[in-house]
TrEMBL record:
GO molecular function: nucleic acid binding
Protein name: Transposase
Alphabetized Gene3D superfamilies for the sequence: Ribonuclease H-like superfamily/Ribonuclease H
High-level lineage: Eukaryota, Viridiplantae, Chlorophyta, Pyramimonadophyceae, Pyramimonadales
Region (Disordered): 336-427
Species: Cymbomonas tetramitiformis
Coiled-coil stretches noted in the UniProt entry, renumbered to this chain: none
Biased composition (Basic residues): 375-390, 418-427
PANTHER family attached to this UniProt entry: OS01G0541250 PROTEIN (PTHR47169), TRANSPOSASE TC1-LIKE DOMAIN-CONTAINING PROTEIN (PTHR47169:SF4)
InterPro entries the record matches: RNaseH_sf
Composition bias type Acidic residues, residue spans: 336-352, 396-406
Length: 427
């Protein structure tokens, strides 16, 4: 006969579970039996659920020395109250063809599918370098400075099933110091072009090995292009908005887009570019808010990293601005799409049948800037009318409330947020 879960049994079970966090419920049952407690596996599972014991994925944190903690603390104190208006975060990320931790659900009689690689240790992957900043509605900037694939141009020596002879194609390469210097020059130039209203742009990079040898060269090139290049503290990935928010968001979208597709490097590349194009300005704005919270947590833990990002209702606080941000860029995107469709229709009507007029780069840039200006003017008029409509609706609602007060008695001591709302009591 199995014993009932007494208070003594529950204390013994929880003590055993804390000492054996990776044991299954069946293994805990055997260990409890060895200690003289006869208890079923279902009772163990029910009690653990009652105590809110759940399975979690183990996470690894960078190993910190005293010097690392001091540098992290100094950067957090320096940037805690920064507005991030002129800061650009640059980082690199590998996107693998297949994750080693991928899990699928199958029936017992389903034929297994295998993905073959040359080596389990060297799964094909592609590296991208990204640069992000804070979105700005006033200047129509969505926060995405740019994304670059780490590749090298090669020429096909002979004809094959993939390329024609003398055709150029991209080959994935490692990010050396020379390649990083060229990319940083392009990043600073792109930032100057996309953020011309700033006199000073701060570009933050990490301290990876290939970056060390060309750091002075990158700093000098950044000064020439109106950018101040600085290194983030060592062992501080949570001090970069790419690692903190952008890369997890991109990885989730890439996994969804590649699901069920043929595993090939080109599929991953297309998915990464598609995920980057669909990255919303809301995500980049929230990255700045989360970064500030992380800096506060670093200061609270004296430069350490053994903490979880606290949930303090950031999205509720910035919801009005996020709504305006999404509405602005969604409206602009629709207008640009309509302008592109009109341009395509005009080009097909003017040219010969079956031919599309080619537009050079200068004309394309001028057309895009005209579309942006037109979209900004239309959106400003739209928002002005919407504000007027909102003010009129608020004034009418105030009048209706005064009329309703004559019929209903509304309690004045309303409860705080999160508590059940008080109902109006009819007289």
């Amino acid at each position: 006969m199995k014993t009932v879960l007494t208070e003594r049994t529950c204390r013994a079970l929880m003590k055993l579970q804390r000492a054996n966090r990776r044991k299954t419920d069946w293994e805990l049952k055997k260990l409890m039996a060895e200690g003289g407690f006869i208890i079923s596996r279902r009772s163990i599972s029910a009690h653990l659920r009652k105590e809110k014991v759940t399975r979690v994925k183990l996470k690894y944190k960078p190993l910190l020395t005293r010097k690392h903690m001091q540098d992290r603390l100094a950067q957090a104190k320096r940037l805690l109250h920064d507005t991030f208006e002129n800061r650009i975060d640059v980082d690199e990320k590998y996107f693998e063809i297949e994750s080693s931790a991928a899990v699928e659900k199958r029936r017992h009689d389903d034929a297994p599918e295998y993905t073959a690689f040359q080596s389990r240790k060297f799964i094909p992957k592609v590296m991208f370098l990204t640069a992000v900043a804070k979105p700005n509605i006033e200047h129509g900037f969505d926060g995405k400075v740019g994304i670059w694939r780490i590749t090298e141009k090669k020429t096909a020596q002979r004809k094959s099933r993939n390329y024609e002879r003398n055709e150029e194609y991209d080959v994935d390469v490692t990010l050396t110091g020379e390649r990083f210097s060229k990319l940083m020059k392009e990043v600073c130039a792109t930032a100057k072009k996309k953020m011309p209203w700033l006199e000073k742009r701060v570009v933050q990079i990490d301290g990876a090995g290939p970056h060390q040898g060309v750091y002075k060269e990158v700093v000098e090139e950044g000064k020439r292009l109106g950018a101040v290049v600085e290194r983030q503290a060592a062992q501080m990935p949570d001090g970069n908005r790419n690692d903190l928010v952008v890369y997890p968001a991109l990885q989730r979208q890439v996994d969804k887009l590649c699901e069920g597709e043929r595993k090939h490097i080109d599929t991953v590349v297309k998915a990464v570019y598609h995920a980057w194009d669909n990255l919303r300005p809301e995500t980049l704005h929230m990255a700045c808010e989360i970064q500030r919270v992380v800096y506060a947590s670093i200061i609270e833990h004296n430069g350490g990293n053994r903490f979880k990002v606290p949930h303090i209702g950031l999205r509720v606080e910035v919801q009005p601005y996020i709504y305006e941000l999404n509405e602005y860029f969604d409206t602009r995107q629709e207008i640009e799409r309509e302008e592109e469709e009109e341009d395509v229709d005009d080009s097909t009507d003017d040219d010969a049948p079956g031919q599309v007029r080619r537009v050079n780069q200068a004309e394309l840039v001028a057309t895009s800037w005209q579309a942006k200006e037109q979209g900004r003017k239309r959106h400003n008029g739209y928002m002005k009318g919407k504000r007027a409509k909102r003010q009129s609706s608020e004034s009418s609602s105030d009048e209706s409330v005064e009329e309703a007060d004559e019929q209903f008695m509304v309690p004045t001591n309303l409860p705080r947020r999160g508590a059940p709302r008080a109902r109006a009591i009819r007289k």
